[in-house]
Amino acid sequence: MNVLSKFPYWRQDFTASLVVFLVAVPLCVGVAVASGVPAELGLVTGIVGGIITGLMPGSSLQVSGPAAGLTVLVFEAVSEFGVSALGVIVLVAGLLQLAMGFSRVGRWFRAISVSVVEGMLCGIGLVIIAGQIYAAAGLKAPDTGLGKIAGLPGAVTDALSSTAALTSLAIGTGTIAIIVLWKRMPKAAQAVPGALAAVLLATVTALVFGLPVATVEVEGLLGVIQPPGSAAFGELASPAIWGTIVAFALIASAESLFSAAAVDRLHDGPRTQYDKEMIAQGAGNTICGALGALPMTAVIVRSSANVAAGAKTKASRVLHGVWLLLFAAALPSALALIPIPALAGILIHAGWKLIPFRQTAALWRSHRGEALILAVTAVSIVAVNMFEGVLIGLALSVIKTAWDASHNKLEVIDKGAGPVQVYLSGNATFLRLPKILGSLEALPQDRPIELDLTGLHHLDHACRTALENWAERHSEAGTEPVKVTETVLVPAAVVTATRGELQKAAGGAPPVYNGGPRG
């Protein structure tokens, strides 16, 4: 009793750990099979994510393990470099995450454009769905994302002409239907996660009726753990593998930290310490790599299940790792009974949930530029690959930010008599300088001009210099000196100056104040 008194929430954490364990088992196995590696490696990553990462500081309630979001990248890496090189890729990616965490880079991942992240998830979801449709029908999928999507009509034709393919597809379709409809079941039944219930029902159905469907191949937990050898480390001499390593590190980190931000909104407990969470993820991936297992990220499905089940401390996620270890050690033969189309159905459902339908619609209504970045990122991932697709999205985001940052408005008011009034507002940067100068140089040369800059949020050196030169040239035409009204870095202060005084102010001379900014 004295021991339990030190853990006041042990009942809640114990119950939550069982729920997360039941959610994690089919996902760990499904992600591993879809990634082209032995099923047990998914359980190994789940064990490390629960016990090792779970014990470390960072986020108290989010749960880590193999994620559907990395399935496409892992499959590409295994196809290109082989399973033996996977451990080295994951290990070095983990070390990069550790370096970023200790360098306090973790918090900066919060600055990544949300549209790029949503586009990444959308592209991943599309590739997962397309690829797992083939797996559900027992067919071989093309290697590329475009090939998978383009080959779907032919795959449907092949499936309709084969009894075995139709049977396999029926198992996969039934699995999806059970997951979707499980939420309508009585609360007592919902104590069992929908994905687990679907897999159990599919397994029982296949066994009872003796259906000719492929099942998971089992090699045993100790048989699949293969630390990378010297030949695998020799792959690091290839420049191509480093792009994959960087992709693993960046995408796994972004997914984990965005998941942490989402989980923080689900509970009132301690907030995530992003740099420490980055270190925890790096430590977990380093160990996963040393064991030759799959890469690890924080997984929002398991994390939200953990919070919803009433978890209060990190004990729940550590215990879920213990249950995974006991399951993998005591019941490995149970994996051999699971139909592969059932796992494909789970991943198709997971891929569907990755596609941000509501967010995309909201972006299109309010920020069409961001919606375009989301769409281009998703299409690029499908057409090329995940890493390059994300880079394209980030590049577009930077270009859009630069464009928005240089947005300004130039308004000319000419009443026919008196000075021409020019109002410049927004951000005056070198990117918009040609347009600004073109408008100013088109003004009458024989009239005095008043240039009001009080609406500017930013005036860079290039624009300031160009405006000074334009004012000087205009004054040389024999008109009244150009009068400039400019907000300076003093609250509610405005300077009115001739072109000569403007030049002095730019060099640090005290301005002449005459009231507050216009309107």
TrEMBL record:
GO cellular component, one term: membrane
Cell compartment(s), UniProt: Membrane
InterPro entries documented for this protein: SLC26A/SulP_dom, SLC26A/SulP_fam
Protein's UniProt keywords contain Transmembrane: yes
Record has Oxidoreductase as a keyword: no
Residue stretches making up the SLC26A/SulP transporter domain: 11-377
UniProt superkingdom: Bacteria
Pfam family, one: Sulfate_transp
An annotated GO BP: transmembrane transport
Membrane topology: Multi-pass membrane protein
Cleaved signal peptide residues: none
Name of the protein: Sulfate transporter
Lineage start: Bacteria, Bacillati, Actinomycetota, Actinomycetes, Kitasatosporales
